[in-house]
Amino acid sequence: xxxxxxxxxxxxxxxxxxxxxxxxxxxxxxxxxxxxxxxxxxxxxxxxxxxxxxxxxxxxxxxxxxxxxxxxxxxxxxxxxxxxxxxxxxxxxxxxxxxxxxxxxxxxxxxxxxxxxxxxxxxx
Length: 124
What we know:
About 75% of the residues lie in helices and about 0% in strands. By secondary structure, the chain is mostly helical. It folds into two domains: about 5-40, no CATH class; about 50-120. Helix 1 packs across helix 2 and helix 5 (about 85-100) packs antiparallel against helix 6 (about 100-120).
């Protein structure tokens, strides 16, 4: 992180790295805060690697049961290469024992779907 990099620039850079997508200019206060605080501050902090932050985020999103966020973060973790498919499956096994099988079944379904999509995209 450079001294001259603004919070927004840092947020946009981390957004690219974390989501593997291109950020758009935030249209409202919610999206501004997401870009600046979540990506510009939280994801750029020292002390944890991006992979460690991924595991924390995946676990929190998995526990929340929010299907859109779950799909988004699982796919981004795999697309970025931060987490390998076999690691993701092992996380599902661990997650199931702590969060419960009903909740982990939804997470596992999203993981298998994301892995299949990743494999299909690399075969073309």
